[in-house]
Amino acid sequence: MIQNSPPSVLLVEDDLEQAELVERGLERSGFRVASVRDAREALHRMALEDFVAIVSDLSLPGMNGDELLRHIRTMEPGMPFLMLTGSQDVQTAVQSMHDGADEYLLKPVTPQTLSSKLLSAIERRTRQLAEEKSSLDANMGKLITFLRSVKAMINALETKDQYTRDHSKKVAQSAVMMARHVPGMTKRGIREIRIGALLHDIGKIGVPLTILHKDGPLDDEEWQEVKRHPEYGCRILEPLSREYPEVLAIVRHEHERWDGRGYPDGIAGTDIPLGARLIMIADTYDAVCSTRPYRKAMSKEAALEIIREGAGGQFDPSLVPIFEKVLPELPMPRYE
């Protein structure tokens, strides 16, 4: 008969004697304990193994327990986290609870108390996740219906504009590959960037076909009409505003520039959503390396040079090295 393995808890404690005491107590309560000595080793173990909870000392070498907690809340928002400390500082305790600690316990703590608090935290987080899933499922039907209608609009846009047909998919692929190398990026953040990239040109459905297909340069009036497409896109995607507000922000601001000379709002620097800044680079790469009515596709090397030159002007300079890092893996567009 196959037996279920005991739930695994990650213990972060640099005091060997304390670590042994906590480890023995938790094992007697039915947990398997993986013990590490510092926060960086804890983050490494989390990348390799699944844990049901984390028990960490506050005072750790290098990265403190409170810094580890903030990292965990970014990576795994629903992970039960118990903070242990020998300090009775009230302000520190309040800050830890504010950062998302499930419990803040003074050492020495008895094995019975620790196990009880740990089980309560796991049950509470499990119940919370179940409630969130139920709420998400209730809204999913409406969201799917809306996305189907958006898909129909995308199909209509692709029929109008041949270039758009594969462009959005390639931009999404490149933007997501870059996003995975951004420190602190979450799974939800990557999902929002993917959706935002796929929909970033949806507002062009409102731009006249004569302008989209014009071979020569646009006059001022035509250019002003093209510059309205992010606002058109936000109107179309308004039903997403509650569940995915960041997607609307990406669609609205994907043409903003780091130096504030973009459109539609002329915002600059980190006021531009991170997803929009990533997609701006991915969009430019795809445009440079694609065959257009007025020129042939350029090389990856040419695209890299253009994006390097635009760092600090058009592009977020901190993201250009990430683009350069993933460039060898990016697909070569070349739309014929």
How would you portray this structure in words?
This protein is an alpha/beta fold and 336 residues long. The protein folds into two domains: 8-129, Rossmann fold, CATH 3.40.50; 161-329, Hypothetical protein af1432. Helices cover 54% and strands 7% of the residues. It is built from 14 helices and five strands. The protein has helices at 16-28, 39-48, 65-75, 90-99, 111-160, 164-179, 187-199, 209-212, 220-226, 229-236, 245-253, 274-288, 300-309, 320-326; strands at 8-12, 32-36, 53-57, 81-85, 103-106. The protein has a five-stranded parallel sheet, with helices on both faces. The mean pLDDT is 87.
Structural class: alpha/beta
In round numbers, the mean pLDDT is 87
Poorly predicted parts: none
Number of strands: 5
Q: Kindly provide the name of the CATH class of the largest domain.
A: Mainly Alpha
Strand order of the largest sheet: 2-1-3-4-5
Radius of gyration over alpha carbons?
A: 25 Å
- Helical coverage, percent range: 40-55%
Give the count of helical stretches. 14
